[in-house]
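Study this fold:
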Amino acid sequence: MEKSALQIARAAYQPKLPKALQGPVKAQEGAATQSVGNQDEIKALFPNTYGMPVVEFVPAESENKEAINVGIILSGGQAPGGHNVISGLYDGVKSLNKDSKLYGFLMGPGGLVDHKYVEFTDEFIDEYRNTGGFDIIGSGRTKLEKEAQFESGIEILRELGIKALVIIGGDDSNTNACVLAEYYAAKKYGVQVIGCPKTIDGDLKNEQIETSFGFDTACKTYSELVGNIQRDCNSARKYWHFIKVMGRSASHIALECALQCQPNICLVSEEVEAKQMSLDDVVTYIAKAVAQRAADGNNFGTVIVPEGLIEFIPAIKKLIAQLNEVLTDPATGEPREFESAEAQIEFVLSNITAENKAVLESLPADVKRQLCLDRDPHGNVQVSLIETEKLLSAMVAKKLGEWKKEGNYNGKFSAQHHFFGYEGRCAAPSNYDADYCYSLGYNASRLISNGKTGYMSVIKNTTAPAAEWIAGGVPITMMMNIERRNGANKPVIRKALVELDGAPFKFFAAHREKWAKETCYVYPGPIQYWGPTEVCDQCTKTLALEQAK
């Protein structure tokens, strides 16, 4: 594989480990746990893995050095640092016993089901240390939820002598890991299952998980791009830039980019929902800021829009929920099949309430069509394909035109549009993510050697220097509740949304009026890999505010 000068230099970087993982460890167990919601239902569904204690690793005089074969799966969308989770796990199992083996299943969970794998070696692993992407073994979105899949998986696990499986993924993937751990425990198959928290969206976090890996790098990547646009914006002084960023279910990325860059406007989906704002309310909010800046002679600005905004507008959220219901076949739980797009649209219009139909009909034709037709792999409305940034700018332009006719606006409005998504998913990991991910993988090896299953690898206290980080594990069942998915009630890990009473949002809310009126842009610049610690090893502003440091 050809390498750039940066890759060659980064390969030499040695990720930092918590002091607790730098020698023999033992698991210190806390009190029994329960799920965050629907305790009785979750306990009934996971009788073998429910109620286990949170564990923290502390120094020990010796530890289990038995050789063990481990499998690993990359599941779902890419996130910076995945390769370091694998290299951390590899180094971890080898540090226990040089005869331990690590196998990677190819292209996600489907590799386990279809028996496609590769064995890692020193030379193989060394090619990917501290690099971005998931290309070491590829990723996929196959859901592990059927008995036939579990049984197919156990065949190859037995053939390779694998005693533990590590699944790297987001909330859905780790829900699947929990289901798999319960199945193998119930069957007494002797295979442990460990999860690792991955998602650049930042919505897999709670009291035990401070942040999901990849969020730090993705936000720094997007913030560099937003900063570049703001510099251009402040130079040309003639465009309003509407910038959509990743984050369908939560606005953590949008908020973090705002904290780093101080744009004129940042929309937070959770606030839009809490305030019961209509689409027109959102448009009016932006238009007023545009008009205010125009009155000061500033016909330019930046607007950050979270990818999933439209789904949080209450009337549209209600519409989407019913669309997900009517377009799912209740007999199979799979998306309904139609002869043509027109037949699908006609079916939708005939099977939704009059209230939802009115909302659908009020939207632009292309948005209406997307809502009716486009589905993701799980059968849900493909919200990410809706060009919300263009929808908002067009509606703002229309409203400003109306105000101009009424004599209430005399500025100029011209828009540019951007969507930052794939640009951040496979970036070379920041020092924080390189260290955090390596620690997550290494820590997973200790969860395995301590006989744990149905646990998530967790590293805490990450605003402190890496040596002071706390390593351990949390039962995945502790994070679960019951939610409505595809027309059925299912156990899932609860997503973490932006907390409107949390420190990050409060800081943003206290400053946004000033940022809207004045030009307070900050230009973060590229991710720094070398230089002073205060520049290179900083965590996100979100995490620093949450941890009050």
In short: The first strand starts at residue 25 and ends at 29. The longest helix spans residues 215-236. DSSP finds 22 helices and 15 strands in the chain.
